[in-house]
Amino acid sequence: MANVWIGLGSNLENPVKQVSDALIELANLPNTRLLKASNLWQSKPFGPQDQPDFINAVAEITTTLEPLALLTQLQTLEALHQRKRERHWGPRTLDLDILLYDTLVLTDEKLTLPHPGIAQRAFVLCPLAELNENLLIPSLGTVKQLIQQLGKEASSQVLPLEAKATTSF
Fold first, then answer.
1. Is residue 74 within 8 Å of 96, Cβ to Cβ?
2. In this structure, is residue 136 part of a structural domain?
3. pLDDT value of position 157
4. What are phi and psi of 128, to 5 degrees?
5. Known catalytic residues?
6. Torsions phi, psi for 117 (to 5 deg)
7. d(C-alpha 101, C-alpha 109), whole Å
8. What is the mean pLDDT of residues 144-165?
9. Which of 10, 37, 42, 145 has its CA 20 to 30 A from that of 163?
């Protein structure tokens, strides 16, 4: 079983519900178990600013699915949520990203691990820190160190939501 961290995000069609439903769906993937999920966080869009704020979370799962098979399952879930890829970093109903797959370092045309840009994205690092601030990102450092490197201004762009995912796993 591999330990995997998944980033979740949405800024369309009731984002809180989109992310909460996706957490349930992650728990139901084949050969996969949801271990824990962060609270929900609100963030400004990464990229074009002419879109609604995002709701983000991170989930920790264990799975026997290989990385590319897991990616296919995640893309299937995105399609179930009517995800459309119309513009790079544009609005979306659901975005599911493999952030880390154990300590695997992989560069493939379909998947790069750890997720590229993880060190610059407070909307990923803050919920990840909630689960494990001492988690080591291969070749980059711990989640806590990466947040410190971003600085207070970047971290202040991501705020925890009062409403928490109400699903129990």
1. yes
2. yes
3. 76
4. -65, -40
5. 83, 92, 95, 97
6. 85, 0
7. 16
8. 78
9. 145
Query: Does residue 21 form part of some domain?
Result: yes
CA gap 53, 42 in Å, rounded:
7
- In a domain, residue 19? The reply is yes
Residue 136 has pLDDT above 70, yes or no: yes
User: Is residue 8 one of the residues assigned to a domain?
Assistant: yes
Closest residue by Cα to residue 39 from 169, 168, 162: 162
pLDDT band, very low/low/confident/very high, at 141 (cuts 50, 70, 90): very high
CA atoms within 13 A on the CB side of 140: 28
What is the 3 state secondary structure string of the chain?
CEEEEEEEEECCCCHHHHHHHHHHHHHCCCCEEEEEECCCEEECCCCCCCCCCEEEEEEEEEECCCHHHHHHHHHHHHHHCCCCCCCCCCCCCCEEEEEEECCCCEECCCCEECCCCHHHCHHHHHHHHHHHCCCEECCCEEHHHHHHHHHHHHHCCEEECCCCCCCCC
Mean pLDDT of the chain: 90
